[in-house]
TrEMBL record, chain A:
Residue ranges of the TM segments: 20-40, 62-82, 94-111, 117-141, 148-170, 176-197, 218-242
Keyword line: Membrane, Transmembrane, Transmembrane helix
One matching Pfam family: ABC2_membrane_2
Protein name (database record): ABC transporter permease
GO CC annotations on file: plasma membrane
Signal peptide range in chain numbering: none
Species per Swiss-Prot/TrEMBL record: Tahibacter soli
GO molecular function term, any single one: ABC-type transporter activity
Length: 252, 287
């Protein structure tokens, strides 16, 4: 565990000292800020009508929820870019041996890498959360619902980071790792699209889709089935990454 | 340690040959305690390889290597490219598990408890495993913490190795901007931080200019006092200048192990060339 924390802190440091990670964060925040302003504009236009309806949607539905779902979609592409170097990059610059020769277990290495990526993603999620939360000053925001959505987003980020680290362990080319991770993420997003079209929304294939587990938190529902989904799939991805690292020990 | 040096052992076949070890220690089950006092540890080999073999991609890269190394010794593993030096060193460093055979550090099997590598082995691979985006001090600090040193210990260790490896001028520079010689020194510093009894250096002088190579040799020699050093090279001169003993590896087999003695350069060179070019060895007059 302590080795994982050392590796995680090192990963964060390596992200901090490199301009591209700040550029990536800035681009993500800018993109979401733009979406936030559009959603806010729409809300202000609709506000008089909404106020007249007895059960009308509020700022939480229109501004926060739409922004968070945009963020969830952005994560599908952003996390692979962030995690692609974790192991593949080390292999390419021949520094993975440092970790392999340090007497640290494969699981601890993979977990540390994941933790480092997560620290960055939690910081980004906090920055993103500030935008809708800034509305608290002027309107009544459903904070419980915002909290549930943020929890869902962190869980989703955790799963995607685990997938990213796994893809990064599979190949020595970071770009290829990102492509593989994006493909897996899109698969997990779209896998139940056909079933939904047929009206099936409760089958095993729906359980597999990441969308069916991120929507409940956006509606304010925190269910153990959704949390379990993210934790189980994330743990499987990290276990596969550790397994792959074991095979890498024998490679040159 | 003296008994390790007493005889030149000639190895001409792939059969098990223990380099200079007395017979009673050949089974590799030496139960030397981890915390043995120096005099006892000196008597028992720090590193003991027993029938070490490794297959990679269906080819037997290392075959039945037996070798022992005591504290205070510098052993040079000599061989042409592709002789299996790096694979052997990777196994000793705890990175690559052997297909068969064992690596024992102070009597403990490395692959029964891989965490032994954390504090007892320092390893510089063929390419120094550096993070170019970090400064020298930042990188070394991470390495120290990774090896399980506490915060304060890590600070002391980093300062000590920066001093010893002559990195004071560049400690705040980014590793990626350093010359190859400095980078290699950072790689060595990384292997010394946790003061491991066994130091494994894979071609430490490769890519260095002659001046840097001499300084590297001096550094390795200075390590002899407190550590056992195992280094690989394909240059006979380098092995001869820096090592107490030389083991010649060819096609994955240990072919010859001997103590370096002054004035034997010509004979050694001939021997190495014969082994390297697969010429049958003549009978050696040595007893």
């Amino acid at each position: 565990m302590s080795a994982s924390l050392v590796i995680a802190r090192h990963e964060v440091r390596r992200l901090i000292v490199q301009p591209w990670s700040w550029g990536l964060m800035a681009a993500a925040v800018a993109l979401l800020a733009y979406q936030f302003l559009i959603a806010l504009d729409r809300f202000l236009q609709l506000a008089p009508k909404l106020a007249a309806a007895p059960d009308g949607a509020g700022a939480t539905d229109i501004v926060a929820a739409s922004m968070f779902s945009a963020y969830a979609n952005l994560l599908l592409f952003l996390v692979p870019l962030l995690s692609m170097r974790t192991i593949a990059g080390e292999r390419r610059q021949h520094s993975l041996t440092l970790l392999l020769a340090a007497g640290v277990g494969n699981g601890a290495i993979v977990f540390g890498k994941w933790l480092g990526v997560m620290a960055w993603l939690v910081l980004l999620t906090a920055l993103v959360a500030l935008m809708p939360l800034s509305l608290v000053a002027g309107t009544a925001l459903d904070l419980g619902r915002v909290g549930a959505a943020l929890l869902g987003l962190v869980l989703q980020a955790g799963l995607l980071a685990a997938i990213g680290v796994m893809a990064s362990a599979w190949t020595a080319q970071p770009a290829l790792a990102a492509a593989v991770a994006i493909a897996i993420n899109l698969f997990l997003t779209l896998v139940d699209a056909g079933a939904r079209l047929q009206g099936v929304s409760n089958g095993a294939i729906n359980w597999l889709a990441v969308t069916s587990h991120i929507e409940p938190p956006f509606r304010g529902i925190v269910a153990s089935v959704d949390i379990a989904y993210f934790v189980i799939l994330g743990a499987v991805a990290l276990a596969l990454a550790a397994n792959r690292l074991d095979a890498l020990r024998s490679a040159d | 340690m003296l008994n390790l040096r007493r005889a030149v052992v000639e190895c001409k076949t792939d059969a098990a040959r223990h380099a200079g070890l007395p017979p009673q220690r050949r089974n590799g089950n030496n139960p030397a305690p981890v915390t043995a006092p120096d005099d006892i540890a000196d008597a028992a080999p720090l590193l003991q390889l027993t029938d070490l073999s490794r297959r990679l991609a269906g080819r037997e890269v290392v075959r039945g290597v037996n070798l022992a190394l005591a504290r205070g010794e510098v052993l040079g593993l000599l061989g042409v490219n592709g002789a299996g030096k790096s694979t052997t060193l990777r196994m000793i460093a705890g990175v690559l598990a052997p297909t068969s055979g064992s690596v024992r550090i102070d009597g403990d099997d490395l692959y029964d408890d891989p965490s032994i590598a954390r504090r007892r082995i320092g390893y510089l691979p063929e390419r120094a495993p550096l993070h170019p985006e970090l400064t020298v001090a930042e990188y070394l600090r991470f390495c120290a913490r990774l090896r399980g040193l506490a915060n304060a210990e890590a600070t002391t260790a980093v300062a000590r190795e920066i001093e010893r490896c002559d990195l004071g001028d560049v400690r705040r520079r980014l590793i990626g901007q350093l010359s190859k010689g400095y980078q290699q020194r950072v790689g060595i510093a990384q292997a010394l931080l946790h003061a491991p009894p066994l130091i494994v250096l894979d071609e430490p002088a490769s890519g260095l200019d002659p001046v840097q190579a001499i300084r590297m040799r001096e550094l390795v020699r200075s390590l002899r006092a407190n550590h056992a050093v195992l280094l690989s090279t394909h240059l006979l001169a380098e092995a001869e200048a820096g090592c107490d003993r030389i083991a010649i590896l060819h096609r994955g087999e240990l072919r010859h192990a001997m103590i370096v003695q002054p004035g034997e350069t010509a004979r050694l060179e001939q021997l190495f060339l014969r082994i390297a070019s697969d010429v049958a060895l003549p009978a050696e007059p040595h007893a």
